[in-house]
Amino acid sequence: MKLFFPILAVSLFNCAQAFTILIDPGHGGDEDGASAKSVGKFPIEIIKEKDIALSISQKIYEKLLARNHTVFLTRSFDRTVTLPERAAIAEKTKADLFISVHINSSPENGAQGFETYYLDNHNDVAIKKVEKTENIPAKGDEVVVQQILVDLVIDQTVNTSRPLAQSIHSEIKSRVGRKYGIQSRGIKPGLFFVLALSKRPGVLLEVGFISTLKERIRMMNPKFQDDYATSVVSGIQKFINSIKQSNKKKH
Ligand SMILES: [Zn+2]
Question: What is the CATH number of the domain that holds 87?
Answer without folding.
Answer: 3.40.630.40
